[in-house]
Amino acid sequence: MEADSSGSSAERRRSSAARLLIAAALLAAVGAASLTIDWLRSSTDDIVEHPGPAATDEQTQTEVVGQAKDIVAIAALEQPTAGYLLMSCKNRDDPPYQGTVYLNFVLPARVDADAYFRGVAAALVAHGWKEGPPPNQHLFGRNMSKDGVSALLYREENSATNGVARIHGQCRDTTDHRHDSTAWVDVTDRLR
User: Fold this and answer.
1) Class of domain 57-191
2) Which of 162, 125, 165 is nearest to 146 (CA)?
3) From start to end of 47-161, where are the E strands?
4) What residue ranges do the domains of the chain occupy?
5) C-alpha span between 161 and 12 (Å, rounded)
6) How far is CA 115 from CA 42, 73, 120, 135, in A?
7) 71, containing H or E segment
8) What is the pLDDT at residue 39?
9) Of 39, 49, 120, 130, which has the highest C-beta tally within 10 A?
10) Is the pLDDT of residue 192 over 90?
11) What mean pLDDT do residues 44-62 have?
12) Distance between CA atoms of 69 and 22, rounded to whole angstroms?
């Protein structure tokens, strides 16, 4: 009986040591994962908190409206109209801000939307834009970027004849605009 109890005691010690080793390994893995997540979160937060060289309101608007003008010219968009707005990169109100252009245009008559936006993307790529993964929410849409500016081009959901380009600049405008008007400014005349 004594041999039996010492065997069971050794098994218990081995079992306790194994449990302790497993617990230590799990604790180390959870700690490493926590540090990694914190590092990843802080690096993306740093981009918003410290966006790089600050831009003035005029520079912010020029950056995004200039790229909108280039898109209109390169893609030969028909009947373009556009509005401009500063948007918070952080939340609804706080700096930093990015310039945003919402551009509407007319699609050429009797054209396949997929072929049309594929051609627009190819024309933009030929002028230095890079194409990203297709947007999930807009059939036949294209994600494009150049010099820190992103553009999402797609057919308007409720219209077979209209297209949209949402163009966003860099988050570098650190001027406080919390109490400014949030109305869109018509910039159509600057697209020509």
Assistant:
1) alpha beta
2) 125
3) 78-88, 97-106, 130-131, 142-146, 149-155
4) 1-50, 57-191
5) 76
6) 41, 19, 9, 16
7) helix 57-75
8) 54
9) 120
10) no
11) 76
12) 61
* Tokens encoding 90: 């952080």
- 142-146 sheet: strands from edge to edge: 130-131, 142-146, 149-155, 162-168, 97-106, 78-88, 185-186
Q: Find all residues with CB under 8 Å of 88, minimum gap 6, and list them.
A: 94, 95, 96, 97
Tokens standing for residue 152? 């999402």
Residue (of 81, 76, 86) closest to 172 by Cα position: 86
Per-residue pLDDT tens over the stretch 67-89: 999 999 999 999 999 999 999 99
Reading the block at residue 34, the tokens are 């926590």
Tokens of 77: 């968009």
What six digits make up the tokens of 32? 């490493």
